[in-house]
């Protein structure tokens, strides 16, 4: 890290090293478990993913899928780090948004509206896949728009 990067990081406390590989592994697990749940009509997978996402949003150190990356995949060099200096808040917001959509899906399942539950789960699958394969984070976009309109402080 150069001196300039250190000064920028210190003067903008929101900017931190963020490993995008951890985010991609997280998205891969989200997609995988939700697709398995859909294929086997097993909402328990939605429960699991919603819990992992909600806990990871509230307590980032406990984010299970990202911990698998940090504790298993990266040390064994199965996945290489891709570290960038950026604010992790938009990514946490996006994950929280996904968790919220899955919680609404779970309410649909509980009320017997399976089509609604699976439709919302598919929305999460598609948005995670768009982020994974094309690098566009819809939740991050929403975060930045809310910041732009003053709903979220900069």
Give a brief description.
The chain contains 7 helices and 2 strands, in the order αβαααβααα. It is mostly helical and 154 residues long. The chain has one domain (19-72, 86-148).
Task: Explain what the structure shows.
The structure is a single chain. This protein is mainly alpha-helical. The protein has one domain (19-72, 86-148). Helices cover 70% and strands 5% of the residues. It is built from 7 helices and 2 strands; from the N terminus they run H-E-H-H-H-E-H-H-H. The chain has helices at 3-11, 20-39, 44-58, 64-73, 89-110, 114-134, 138-148; strands at 16-19, 83-86. Strands 1-2 form a two-stranded antiparallel ribbon. It is globular. The model is unreliable at 1-11 (pLDDT under 50).
- Overall geometry comes to globular
Q: For the report, how would you describe the main beta sheet?
A: 2 strands, antiparallel
SSE run: HEHHHEHHH
Strand content: 5-15%
Q: Which runs of at least 5 residues are low in confidence (pLDDT < 50)?
A: 1-11
Rg over CA atoms: 17 Å
Give keywords.
mainly alpha, 5% strand, 7 helices, globular, disordered N terminus
Give me the secondary-structure topology:
Layout: H1 3-11, E1 16-19, H2 20-39, H3 44-58, H4 64-73, E2 83-86, H5 89-110, H6 114-134, H7 138-148
């Amino acid at each position: 890290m150069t001196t300039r990067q250190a000064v920028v990081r210190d003067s903008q406390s929101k900017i931190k090293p963020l490993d995008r590989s951890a985010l991609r592994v997280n998205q891969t697990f989200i997609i995988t478990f939700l697709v398995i749940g859909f294929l086997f009509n097993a909402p328990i997978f939605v429960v699991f993913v919603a819990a992992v996402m909600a806990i990871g949003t509230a307590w980032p150190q406990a984010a299970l899928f990202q911990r698998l990356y940090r504790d298993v995949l990266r040390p064994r060099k199965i996945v290489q780090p891709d570290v960038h200096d950026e604010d992790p808040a938009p990514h946490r917001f996006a994950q929280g948004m996904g968790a919220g959509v899955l919680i609404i899906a779970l309410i649909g399942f509980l009320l017997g509206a399976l089509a609604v539950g699976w439709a919302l789960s598919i929305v999460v699958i598609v948005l995670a896949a768009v982020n994974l394969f094309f690098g566009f984070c819809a939740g991050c976009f929403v975060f930045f728009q809310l910041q732009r309109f003053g709903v979220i402080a900069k």
